[in-house]
């Protein structure tokens, strides 16, 4: 299955998000993180992601006679590569953006569904800013954002840390 088709589905994209940061999770743990998605649907999408090389089995354990698999991302297959991205049509980009937004809405809804969710205390934000930039200034901004974000991608879970979903979106509007 082609990467765009494989990752271009909201539930599969949410599974990929759940496993980012070096996490290994069982199907049951993934089901807990995807409220509103049936267990059968999660299993089906895990199978597709594993068959497509996006997920791999990190560990297998016998639990009450059944085999419990722990999955992890295969980082090199967990995103659409630049070559494939450059070949995408306008309709491919529309579809990919719609899937990304659907996954983001589902993640935000799951957050709000947790008891104790407090958007103000959790510094939730969804602002839009229109900025005028030359090509050079745009590339500088992208570099600054990457330098700010990249070192934090390898942070491990620890007391006092919460997992945040950061989804920068950038495109020209005129």
From TrEMBL:
Q: Which residues form the HTH arsR-type domain?
A: 2-87
Q: What Gene Ontology molecular function terms does this protein carry?
A: DNA-binding transcription factor activity
Highest taxon in the source lineage = Bacteria
The cross-references to InterPro entries, in alphabetical order and at most eight, read: ArsR-like_HTH, HTH_ArsR_DNA-bd_dom, WH-like_DNA-bd_sf, WH_DNA-bd_sf
Q: Which Gene3D superfamilies match?
A: 6.10.140.2180, Winged helix-like DNA-binding domain superfamily/Winged helix DNA-binding domain (1.10.10.10)
The protein in question is named: ArsR family transcriptional regulator
What is the organism of origin for this protein? Answer: Nonomuraea terrae
